[in-house]
Structure formats: C-alpha cells, structure tokens
Design goal:
Length: about 400
C-alpha cells in the first residue's frame, strides 16, 4: 500500500492497521496523491509523525515516478496558499468560551427536556431531540478538531452519552466521505441502498422501493440516529472497548429512565433534524463516477451551502449550512464559518470556480426533485460485469469496487 504525500511515496503496508482513521481510507488512495486530503484532516503531531515515517522509507521508493497530476493545478496551489494564510491568521484556533457555551446549550436542552418528560412528553421529545442533534453537531466539530486536548477528551463522552454514537466508528466513515465526497463506490454517505438511490442502478441492484423513495424519504430520515446507534453498538461489541461501552451505557440508562415514548420520540426527532441538513448539501450535486484528483475542485463540485432564512435555522443547522467551508477546512471551528464564507466566495470568484449557495426552501425542493427523478429513471440495462470498471457493488462486502483505485505497479 503506497500513498504519495508532499512529493514522496510512503509504503504504509505494515503500518496501515495502526492508522487511527482506519485502513479503508488508506486503501482508497493506494497509488494516488493524497497531499491535500492529508493536511485537511491531520494535526500538527500527525504531520511530525509523517516526517518520521518519510525518513524510514526504503530508498527504492524514491525512484518511483510521481502520480499523474501530483504537481497540482493552479486551483490546488491557490487552495494551499489560502489554507496557509488562514492558519497564519489564527482561523484554526479554538475558543474555550465558545466551546463551553455550545456545550451548555446541549446540556440545558437535555436537562429541561428530562424535567418535562412526564408532564409534557411532546415538548420533552422535541427538546431532547434538539439536544441530541446539537450534541451531534458539537461532537462532530470536536471530532474534527486538531491540536485541542479539550476536544479530544470531551468529544467521545459527549457523542456517546447524548447522541449515542461511537466516535471512532463515525470518524472513520465520515472522513472517507470528506476526502471522496460524492464518489460513487467510495463515499459511504451516498450509499443508502435499498431505500434511497441517487443514480440509476443496474437492474440486478434495483429495489421495488425505489419508485416511491420521494414519498417516504422524510419518514426514513427520522431513523438516521437509530441506524447510527445500531452500527455504533455493533462496532463496540465487536471491538470489546469497555470504556466506550461504559460511555454509551450512561446515555442508554438515561433514556431508559424516561417514558419510552419520550425517549423514542427524541431519537427520531434528533435523527430527522440531522438528516435533513446533511442530505441537502450533497445529494443534489455532482455524482463522481471518475476519480477527481483535485481535493479543492471536488469540494466545490459536490457541495452546496444552505442560506438559512432566519436566526433560528441558522442556529439549528449548527454551522453545517456552511458545508463547503467545512469540507474545505474541516478542522476549523464551526463558529468561524459564517465569516469565512465571505472569503471563500471571493476566493472562488478570483479563481474561476462556481460557489454554490441556495436558500433553504429552494434546496428542499431541489432535493425532492432529485429523489423524484431517480425514482422515475429506468434501471440501467448494464450487467454487473459491464459496470464493474468503476462502481459495481460488491454485495458480499456491502460496498463498492471502484476502478479509481489503481495502485502504482
């Protein structure tokens, strides 16, 4: 397994199983340049470890030619310059006061919702659902944080207790989505078969549900947290990580102490509020059936900002309405994105690339139209063998086989 980072090849075959972000994301870049993806997701300590790893590489690797396009386009070079400038200006630095305020809101909603659970169950379910959703946003931000011991310690506890999520499982899945956004066969966030389809599937992979997906998708979104919770428990059970299990147990004991309808309603409300945000920003954008080597270009072509109409939705969306800014600079604190958006829009104009941003309700209609279109389009006549060159589904693995993974020989 060889990856090209910052001008040199690294053989990660023996080390891959120790990668904190999992093996899968490394496999996706086997034989390819992942320089911008690496620096977007890693901390200063990780960069230092990279240098040690680079120095330990066999000399034979130095004679290998660089992968095509590794020198970077003018857009890639401009993006790297922008990132360097933002880092120098302190955009990636975190404010403890801001973090504490966001955490206090999550705890406050949870406490009030708990206190109202017996007298006002409907109100309680909504407040607890909001707490779980906001815990998801804050846990997400802490998971992406780099060079922050506070976020590194608090994030797993918050995600496990309030949102019921296993942060290592979610991080591995989510980081793959970040660096290969909307890549068919690689991005796990766009593979929701057999319930939702964002492209015409081969007949062998089609579902009798697809013609109705635009009818039931809103109800299905409510089960997002149910699905994530189940997958989190499965991973923890398989790994035997007792500390993570203890964290999640606290959250489940809390839910079991509440009226069952309140607990169930809160999980469904929280899941729906998360799903409606994360799907709008990507699922109506370009779907990549060929590998896009430019990290910056891929983010612009697969991501759209949501223009919130009022202060409440601006808070509700938790910074994820600035999805493009987040994908370009995922380790930046989310409370800086609203100011960054102005700079990114100006930078896009200067570099001749489209900056996509649309109002909330037009985006809801756009998303519905996308699902409706994919519900009506005929299934592909191609056999699985015919489409295996890029996006044939490996059913036994529950994933995809992609021809964009072409290791250097």
């Amino acid at each position: 397994m060889r990856l090209f980072i910052d001008g040199s090849w690294l053989d990660l075959t023996k080390w891959a199983s120790s990668h904190p972000g999992g093996v899968t994301i490394l496999e996706r870049f086997d034989g390819r340049d992942c320089t911008d993806a690496f620096y977007a997701l890693h901390s200063r300590d990780a960069c230092k470890r990279l240098e040690k790893l680079r120095n330990a590489q066999p000399s034979a690797l130095k004679s290998l030619p660089a992968p095509e396009g590794s020198e970077g386009s003018s857009l890639d070079k401009a993006y790297r310059n922008l990132r360097t400038r933002l880092a120098a200006d302190g955009w990636f630095e975190r404010s403890f006061a801001q973090e504490a305020f966001l955490l206090a809101m999550v705890v406050g909603l949870a406490v009030v919702g708990t206190c109202l659970s017996w007298q006002y169950p409907l109100v309680a379910s909504i407040l607890l659902g909001l707490s779980m959703q906001q815990a998801g946003w804050l846990g997400h931000d802490m998971c992406h944080a780099r060079n922050s011991s506070y976020c590194e310690r608090a994030g797993p506890w918050l995600s496990a207790i309030v949102a019921g999520l296993d942060q290592p499982w979610w991080s591995e899945k989510h980081n793959t989505h970040h660096v290969l956004t909307n890549h068919v066969g690689a991005d796990p966030d766009i593979d929701n078969r057999p319930f939702l389809f964002l492209w015409a599937p081969p007949k062998a992979l089609d579902s009798v549900l697809r013609p109705f997906q635009h009818v039931y998708y809103m109800g299905l979104y409510s089960f997002l947290y149910v699905s994530w919770r189940m997958q989190s428990v499965q991973r923890i059970w398989a790994s035997g990580e007792m500390l993570t299990l203890a964290r999640m147990s606290i959250g489940y004991v809390w839910l079991l102490c509440l009226p069952w309808a309140v607990s169930a309603g809160a999980v469904l409300v929280g899941g729906f509020l998360v799903a409606i945000v994360v799907t709008l920003s990507h699922e109506s954008e370009d779907m990549k059936t060929e590998y896009e080597p430019s990290f910056a270009r891929n983010q612009f072509e697969t991501t759209r900002d949501i223009v919130c109409p009022d202060a409440f939705t601006e808070w509700l969306f938790g910074g994820m309405q600035y999805q493009l800014e987040h994908h370009l600079f995922p380790s930046m604190p989310r409370y800086k994105y609203h100011k960054l958006a102005l700079l990114v829009r100006q930078w896009a104009n200067e570099n001749g690339i489209e900056y996509r941003a649309t109002g909330l309700w037009p985006m809801v209609r756009m998303h519905f139209n996308t699902l409706k279109q994919m519900a009506d389009v005929p299934a592909s006549e191609a056999s699985l063998d015919a489409v295996s060159e890029f996006s044939r589904t490996a059913i036994c693995q529950g994933g995809y086989v992609g021809a964009w993974k072409q290791p250097v020989q």
